[in-house]
Every structure is written in C-alpha cells, then in structure tokens.
Fold:
Amino acid sequence: MAIDYSEKIPNNVNLSNDRTLQRALEHWQPHFLDWWREMGPHDFASADVYLRTATGVDAQGWATYGAVKMPDYRWGIFLADAIPERKIGFGDSFGEPVWQQVPGEFRSQFRRLIVTQGDTEPASVEQQHLLGHTCPSLYDLRNLFQVNVEEGRHLWAMVYLLHAHFGRDGREEAEELLARHSGDADKPRILGTFNEPISDWLSFFCFTYFTDRDGKFQLKSLAESSFDPLARTCRFMLTEEAHHMFVGETGIGRVVRRTLEVMKELGTDDVQALRGQGVVDLPLLQRYLNFWFSSSLDLFGSEVSSNAASSFANGIKGRPDETTQYQDHVCTDATYELETPDGKGGLQKETVSLRNAMNEVLREAYVRDCEIGLKRWNMQIQKAGHDFRLRLPSTRFRRSIGAWTNVSTDPEGRIIAREEYERRLPEWLPTPADRTYVTSLMQRVTTPGKMAGWIAPPDRGINNLALDYEYVRLA
Ligand code: BYC
Structure:
C-alpha cells in the first residue's frame, strides 16, 4: 500500500479508517515533537538538512532525498508489505497461520519486548543530543541527523504497535517512552548501553558500528515474529537501519585511513608523535572498540535465559533468518554447550536446552558480523605495511549481564585476579586522558567538502552528490 503523505501522520496502515487509533496517535504526536525539540539534536532546528524520507516500502526507490528542516521531517508509520498466507516459522505453533492480533496469553511478553525495542530509539537520539556542534564535516553532520530522524521514526513504529494493539496499557507505555531519558539518574533508559554518553564522534562511529548492529540482529529476530504487524514493522525498519551501520563502518574506516596517512608522513607509529598531529592512534581506537563492543554484547541478555526460551517457544521472537539459516525450527530436543565461570577461578562446561540459549545463538551470529568490518580495517593497516591489528575482545571481557558479569578477564578472555584487571584496565579501555585527547580533536568543520584533520574524506557523497555539496545549510 502507498504511503499517504496528505495525512497528519503519514502512514501505509490505513490510519484514517480507524478514527480512535488516529486520534490517539495524533494526541501523542505533539508530545513526541516536544520531546524532539528538547532532547533531539541541539540547536539545528532551522538548518536545511539533505535528508532521505521514506515514500514507499518497496526495495527499489523507497525513499526520496531533499532539504528538510528536522522538526518538519514527516515521521510516519510504515509496514513492509504483508506476505500472503504467511505461516509461523518457529516454536510450538510452527506452521500455523501468523497472528494479526496479539494472543491474550502472550500480551505482557510482547509488550515488554516492544517497549524495550522502542526505548532504545529515542535513547540513542538523546545520547547524541550535542554531537552536531563538533561535526567533522557537513557530510558527517547530515549522516548524524539522518540517523537521528530515523531513530525517531523507529520510535513511531513501536508506538504505533503499542497504540494499535495494547489499549490503555500501550498508550501509557508510549508516554513513558518519552519520559525516561538516557543517563537520567531517576528514570534511565532500560538497557545499559543506551545510558552511556556519546559525546565525541569516535564514540558515535563505534556506537553505530556495534550498537546499531545489535539493532540489526534484534530487528531480524523480531521480523520473524508470529505477530505479523510486528514482523512487518521490523522488516521495514531494517531497510533504514542499513545506513546507520554504514555510517559506523565507513566512519571507523576513515579514521584508520587518516591515521595511516599521518603514520606514513611521519614515518612512525609513535603515539605521542601521532597525537601531536591530531590523529587517533590505533591503540586508542582499539580501546574505544573494546568499550563499545563489550557494552553492546550485554544487549543480547543472559547466555541462559528462560525469557528467551519462552519467546522462542511461543513464536514471539525467532532467530535472524530463521527460515533460511536453520533446519530445526522447533528445537525441543536440541541442546547447546556453554563454557561458564565455575566461581573458583576456572571454567565449567554446561549443556543447556537450545531454546534457553537463544540469546547466545544471536550473540554469536552478531560477533561474526562484527568481524567483517575489522577484517576490512585490518586490510588497510596491512596494506600500509604495519603489523598492528585491530581485534574484537573476548565475549567474556567486561560483561555486566549474564554468566560473565563481574568476572575479571583480560581481552583474550583469560580469567585474571581482580587486582590485575583493575591495574591493567587503562591498557584496555579509554582512559580519562584518552577521552580528553579525543575531545580536543572534536573541532567543528562546516566548510562544504572539508574534513577535520582526524578523519579522511568518504569515498563518495550522499545519493551520488559531490563531496563538497552543502549537505547541511546552517541557518
Ligand atoms: N541492560 O533473560 P535476560 C536498537 C534485563 S538495539 C539492562 O538475561 P532477555 C538500536 C532484561 O531486560 C536493539 N538490562 O534477557 C541500536 C531482563 O529484565 P526484566 C534493541 C538488561 O530478556 C542503536 C533481565 O535483564 N532491541 O534497536 O532474554 C540505536 C533478564 O533478562 C540488559 C531489543 O533489545 C542490558 N543490556 O533478553 C537505536 C529487542 N540485558 O524484563 C536503536 C527487544 C538484559 O526481567 N528486547 N537485561 O526486568 C529483547 O529481546 C530482550 O529484552 C533482550 C534481553 C535481548 C534485551
């Protein structure tokens, strides 16, 4: 169905046919806009930003590009086209028709997942509230704002489901999504990573690389859901999400490229010499990767989880690409081997039901996907003739959720004494001095086509435009 842009809330869900729902969402809309003005990008409300806006849900030509002032962005409700006669793809009801309404017995489980998903979207916008002020280029500034408006739209996607399918509870949850705030001492966001500040662009690129990629895997799992409106919503969100990870991967790649250029000019990898030239030395980048990767791993939940098992059994949340990647979609008898800490400084092997290990199955697939960018960045480093290699730390390192919570390990995953862990943390995670240095690099560059000295230009502009196109016209 085409998107109707003549309506107050653009949508392809026939909103005007359901006056009660339409009124409820129109009531929420000004609250969202107030939130955007207060918590969204600080100070750029009157800038013209070259944004893409969804205008269809087909793979081809789904978006148009043009100059938009962010508060005028048309946040709307878009579901991917229904798959005719779609059947439940996993769990105890495998093969039965999918649901158009939430079955009463699964209501609270669905609500919890939709609220958790919804909560991350505005959280990330809040985390990036001030970043625009220190943009390394207009190209990057535009990408930041593109990501921000689309996270806002993803909030709309979840709020639509809450309003349309969860009655008064859903409307209350939708209000709460605007009331919790990232890092707020009293009302923080639900998941840990979304309360971490993102106050520099290196963190932003790591976040879009690692944390948005958790988004990809969670959305892919929810896109398998038996609750068809949720599945269709998530399928369309994934179309938008790809750009966010592109921003992360190319952002880090450009940082690496610029550092390698300066290493070549100076003929050294000496950290102080490189810092003297205002670039991000590779060990510093590694510490940022360690921080954001380990934090994002927690977003998959515990290795052994009864929540995950019942979500799978009940057809609520599947595995990414459930239909194409797996043979057994029911997993009643399958088991999974885990290595967990034994509490005495050693390891123990555990065999658990595969259903209980679904979070770990997802986390493993995520880790493999994360490796791809590292291979590309390391290829650049290798080609430049250096031995240094970026790496992902062990999934045991610095965990706050699950079996490895508060177990001190080094980045290779070896269990070590607490004292050694604390003493060596400055080797592994950004130190206050690292953060001060990175902050010192964050000088705003707004001449079209120019880049800050710590980052190389991208290979190409947006939507085939030149690199020196004025992607953001500052008012
Ligand atoms: N921080 O059985 P457990 C994105 C809680 S990112 C704090 O271990 P479960 C995006 C958990 O909620 C994708 N708390 O795990 C990216 C539970 O609490 P309750 C977001 C945590 O339930 C960038 C308790 O611990 N989408 O889209 O199997 C920019 C025990 O839970 C954390 C989703 O997450 C944590 N890290 O799985 C913008 C999908 N981890 O309920 C956007 C929806 C766990 O007992 N959410 N807990 O009070 C889910 O599927 C699941 O809730 C989780 C946890 C995978 C998060």
About this structure: The longest helix spans residues 228-266.
